[in-house]
Specification:
Elements: H1 3-6, E1 14-19, H2 24-37, E2 42-48, H3 49-58, E3 70-74, E4 84-88, E5 93-98, H4 104-109, E6 114-119, H5 127-139, H6 146-157, E7 170-172, E8 178-183, H7 189-198, E9 203-209, H8 218-227, E10 231-236, H9 245-249, E11 254-258, E12 274-279, E13 283-288, H10 294-297, E14 304-310, H11 315-318, H12 322-325, E15 355-359, E16 362-366, E17 377-381, E18 387-391, E19 400-403, E20 413-417, E21 427-431, H13 432-439, H14 445-456, H15 462-481, H16 494-498, H17 505-509, H18 519-525, H19 528-540, H20 553-563, H21 598-615, H22 624-639, H23 663-675, H24 690-712, H25 717-738, H26 742-758, H27 760-769
Parallel strand pairs: 1-2, 2-3, 9-10, 10-11, 15-21
Antiparallel strand pairs: 1-4, 4-5, 5-6, 7-8, 8-14, 9-12, 12-13, 13-14, 15-16, 16-19, 17-18, 17-20, 20-21
Helix pairs in contact: 6-13, 14-15, 14-19, 15-22, 19-22, 21-22, 21-23, 22-23, 22-24, 23-24, 23-25, 24-25, 24-26, 24-27
Length: 770
């Protein structure tokens, strides 16, 4: 099998990889494109720190790391050496463990081994091993790695079947054969786990396939002795080895064989790692990343493999080893290699610069372990390696945050100058929102058509809001179908998270001031709600703020390059074969508004406001979704509003006030209901982003508008007083929320000014009446 071909198979939304060596160009141009072609967009790679840094120095930085996938570096006492591919889908999963690195030779050149376990509705026996693999990946992710935590949370939320699965390290298939995930975390290492798995079965032959060995063959010989194997067969790289004839002669009942004689090996270099024990009752096959060395088999490295039972005397034929073992390799053909076990001399390792993330206009830096951050100079660079800014932490503790909203272009990587004069390898900057956006599935066709129809009106009014209501129901239905719920709170995750405790719910969901918004917020931010927000901003001429992610032409060019000639499957294609009426909507020039009486408009708006006010009780009223609907409601109401002190007209049929109601009362009820829930919002604890600031700007402007309009209309004190109180409270809360944050304050003022300009007719009416 070839990874790059297998990964093009559809049905998965998430992919997690581990690797020792890493080729960023190959991953960007081959693996990632294949994943996106199949609709798999939530992607993470965990790689050995030293090897990633060396690759970035020798090959260059990944163009897409930090934006289209998350690249996490991992350091362990030995080498971070597992080769895992874990894919998750809405109703399926796939676990691949083998010997192949994410490099050209690993994916297409070497002779590698890969074991595959697939889980779906009809084959769920291996699901507990999927959960064990998730725990293993989470163990090797840093506690401070927010990008990994969010990616794993996305994967779990979109795979509802995982909530019903309990972790197990050993499972049985329908035929009663055992399968085990073996890692360096297993008790006493790989060797002890293999011995325990075999148990009392008598082993007649042990076959070890490996490109790297101990110089004295101690690990292979020790395993054979522990299993009581009558014969040991060593399958080696025919071109170079790590041991000589004396070491081989010291092993009793051993034979030497060339990897070139493995079936279909051809000219490929042997890089597969396998251990096969022939027992009386079963064959036992371990395939994975561990070489036949002390570091590989006794816990020095991080390793992973799959250990499986097979019918007795069947494994060698299946693996193409039978013909190989028929021919012994002459001892005289042994050639000692001049390189180290891990393919490369690491006599002068490249210095690591730590981890960098970007969110809400700030770069966060977690320095490498053992460094004095206050003596380091951090340099932020563009994609062309142009230096954009420098900084040194002055106080505090990691992560250190630095505002970068005033930069002319987007920082893509960082380097660190250490006190001894050494400059680190370039470190990619992970853009948390960009990663979340790019991980989102393609928007369903029906939702896109509704958005086009809403935009075709050119403004937000009652007819457009009717389509918004349809769109809202459609988005919520999609969330339920994918296993989510709009009313789900953190506590709803408890039962699922109790099943696998390696990374707790709190580690996923407890986002403090430095960590930004949660995954559900990101899902809404890049859904139809996010597009509605962009439509409103275009109508109001609200420009992108520096508190938001950079969104320049480079983003669009990169997105286009990645998706060129790639068609991602529509996630809801099957569900939409029977088209509803909304499927037939086609964007046209601004359609005529439906004629409605003022009473009908007010009745419809009263219903929408009541529904919204009831729904947000106990929720964050300034969440991405609730903020978008609030803004849409207000814009819909004001689209038909007559200026205070003036009579209603055909163009503006809803009067400010009359005996039966008017827009001032409706707007007041909406603002009071909304503001009463503000204590539930993370805005008041500092979680500001552009969407929330724009909603704050709307409420600040409209609360003043409603209060002053009530005065001009000489409405009853029972109306004027609560409007004045809520207006003053909103003003105070906005002041507190943006205090000390110049970018946020600037965007708030910009939002208020744009609302005032757009509703100039209403504002002018206030001034004229005054």
């Amino acid at each position: 099998m070839r990874y790059d071909q297998v990964l093009r198979q559809p049905g998965y939304h998430s992919a997690f990889f581990t690797t020792y060596s890493f080729d960023p160009d190959l991953f960007d141009d081959a693996v990632l494109v294949g994943l996106h072609h199949a609709g798999c967009k939530n992607v993470v790679v965990i790689a050995d720190t030293a090897m990633v840094n060396r690759s970035f120095v020798e090959i260059g930085q990944s163009r897409r790391a930090g934006r289209d996938y998350h690249l996490a570096k991992r350091s362990v006492p030995g080498a971070f050496h597992p080769k895992i591919t874990l894919q998750l889908g809405h109703d399926r999963g796939r676990l691949m463990l083998g010997s192949a690195n994410l490099t050209g030779p690993g994916l297409a050149g070497n002779l590698e081994v890969v074991s595959v376990l697939e889980v779906d509705e009809d084959r769920n026996w291996a699901a507990p091993l999927i959960v064990a693999a998730i725990d293993y990946l989470s163990h090797h992710a840093s506690d401070e790695d927010e990008a990994f935590a969010r990616a794993m949370l996305r994967a779990r939320q979109r795979s509802p079947w995982l909530a019903e699965v309990e972790r197990a390290d050993i499972v049985k298939d329908p035929d009663g054969r055992r399968h085990a995930l073996i890692t360096e975390q297993s008790a006493n290492g790989v060797v002890a786990s293999f011995e325990a798995f075999v148990g009392a079965d008598q082993v007649s032959q042990l076959v070890v396939v490996s490109p790297f060995w101990d110089a004295n063959l101690s690990s292979a010989r020790g395993l054979a002795e522990r299993l009581g194997a009558e014969h040991l067969s060593l399958v080696v790289d025919p071109k170079e080895q790590d041991f000589g004839d004396a070491a081989l002669a010291a092993v009793e009942n051993a034979s030497l064989h060339s990897g070139a004689d493995i079936r279909d090996a051809g000219e490929r270099r042997l890089h597969a790692k396998m251990i096969i024990a022939h027992g009386t009752n079963k064959d036992y096959v371990l395939s994975g990343s561990a070489n036949a060395t002390r570091a590989g088999l006794h816990g020095g490295n991080a390793e992973a493999g799959l250990l499986q039972e097979e019918d007795p005397r069947s494994a060698l034929d299946r693996l193409g080893l039978s013909s190989c073992l028929l021919h012994e390799m002459p001892v005289s053909a042994l050639r000692l290699r001049s390189r180290s076990e891990m393919d490369i001399e690491v006599s002068d390792p490249v210095r690591d610069g730590g981890t960098f993330t970007f969110e809400s206009g700030r770069v966060a830096w977690i320095p490498p372990e053992g460094s004095d951050a206050f003596e380091c100079l951090v340099s932020l660079e563009s994609s062309s390696r142009q230096e954009l800014a420098q900084f040194t932490p002055e106080d505090g503790s990691p992560p250190f945050h630095f505002p970068v909203g005033n930069l002319d272009s987007q920082p893509r990587q960082a380097r660190v100058l250490f006190p001894d004069g050494v400059v680190s390898a370039p470190a990619p900057i992970s853009f948390l929102r960009q990663l979340a956006r790019n991980a989102e599935p393609s928007m369903p066709r029906a939702q896109r058509q509704l958005l086009e129809a809403i935009e075709s009106y050119g403004q937000i009014h009652i007819d457009a809001y009717d389509l918004v209501a349809q769109l809202e129901a459609m988005v919520d239905q999609g969330a339920r179908r994918k296993g989510g719920s709009r009313k789900t709170k953190a506590s709803d995750q408890d039962d699922a998270e109790e099943k696998h405790r390696d990374m707790t719910e709190e580690e996923f969901l407890a986002l403090d001031d430095a960590k930004g918004q949660g995954e559900m917020e990101d899902a809404d931010r890049f859904s139809a709600y996010g597009e509605l927000r962009r439509q409103m901003n275009r109508i109001l001429s609200i420009s992108t703020s520096t508190v938001e992610e950079f969104a320049d032409l480079e983003d669009e060019a990169n997105d286009l390059a990645l998706s060129e000639n790639v068609t991602s499957p529509d996630p809801d294609q099957d569900d939409q074969k029977a088209k509803s009426a909304s499927d037939e909507i086609v964007a046209t020039d601004a359609p005529p508004r439906r004629a409605r009486r003022s009473g009908e408009i007010e009745a419809d708006m009263e219903g929408h406001i009541r529904s919204y006010s009831e729904r947000i009780v106990g929720e964050d009223p300034l969440s991405i979704r609730n903020a978008a609907i609030l803004r849409l409601l207000v814009m819909t109401l004001l689209a038909d509003a007559a200026p205070a002190g003036e009579a209603a007209s055909p163009e503006r049929p809803v009067a400010a006030a009359h005996e039966r109601g008017g827009w001032v009362r409706m707007l007041g009820r909406l603002l009071v209901a909304h503001h009463s829930e503000w204590p539930s919002s993370s805005v008041l604890s500092g979680q500001l982003d552009a969407e929330r600031i724009e909603a704050l700007g709307l409420t600040l402007f409209t609360s003043i508008l409603a209060s002053e309009a009530a005065q001009i209309e000489k409405m009853a004190p029972s109306v004027q007083k609560p409007l004045a109180q809520v207006s003053a409270s909103i003003a105070r809360d906005c002041q507190v929320a943006t205090e000390g944050n110049g970018d946020a304050r600037g965007h708030l003022e910009h939002s208020v000014a744009r609302h005032a300009a757009y509703y100039a007719v209403l504002v002018a009416g206030l001034r004229q009446a005054a």
